[in-house]
Amino acid sequence: MKQTKTLLRNALDAVTNEKEFSGQSKKILSIVFLLVSCLLSFQSIAGTRFFFFPKDISIAPDLLSATIALALIIPLYGRGILKWSPSIHGLIMFVLLLAVFSSISKLAYAGGDDVSLYLIAIAVALSWLGVRAIAGMVWVLVFLASVYSATMISVGMGITGFIFILTSFLGLLMHTSLSPAGIVTEMSAEYSGFTMKVQKTVNEDIKRTKKKFSGDK
């Protein structure tokens, strides 16, 4: 009985202890969390094609998602949010972060029968060509397709999806040594300028589309 109380007291002390992890512990935990998240991304997810036919969905990293992820993490390395070092640990973290960011970016299109990919390509091409009236409608479809894709993947992953996001975020927290609010602030500061430009372009495309169909000039 006395031994049980001692174990319980030690467990409570450990749970309520707010002493921060050491630098080495943070490195180990970040690798473990990101590795778990990376492994979870390779699971096969049950989905449907055209609402009826079964389809296996994968959010494992590939060429396209890795390219998108590379464009996302390079600025974070540039700002010092993600830590780079020419060492074994630095290389391991780069590979794991690239893989995790690839899987997260793939959530936007992997569950939608590649519709989101085609729509994004069409919308960008039309915007660049100046055909903004049509591009406005396509951007709306891109958003809807992305929501549908994320929803389908969420249903297929179930509790595994929660663990995937949890381990990804915890791995990022351990690597950056920032608080959750700090990560949001830093990433918002990095991507807000680009996001505002994209949002402005999309809004202009949609407004042009509305004017065209309403007959306004």
List keywords for this structure.
mainly alpha, 2 strands, two-stranded antiparallel sheet, 217 residues, elongated
Write up this protein.
This protein starts with a helix and ends with a helix. It has 217 residues and is mainly alpha-helical. The chain contains 8 helices and 2 strands, in the order ααββαααααα. Helix 5 runs antiparallel to helix 6. Strand 1 and strand 2 form a beta hairpin. A two-stranded antiparallel ribbon has the order 1-2. The protein has one domain.
What can be said about this structure in brief?
This protein is mainly alpha-helical. It is built from eight helices and two strands.
- What is the H/E string? HHEEHHHHHH
* Widest sheet, order of strands: 1-2
Q: How many separate domains? A: 1
Number of helices: 8
Number of strands: 2
State the low-pLDDT regions, or none.
none
User: Helix/strand-derived class?
Assistant: mainly alpha
- The rounded distance between the terminal residues' Cα atoms is 84 Å
**Percent range of helical residues:** over 70%
How would the blueprint of this fold be written?
Blueprint: H1 2-16, H2 23-40, E1 45-49, E2 53-57, H3 63-78, H4 88-106, H5 115-129, H6 132-157, H7 159-176, H8 180-214
Antiparallel strand pairs: 1-2
Helix pairs in contact: 2-4, 2-7, 3-4, 4-7, 5-6, 6-7, 6-8
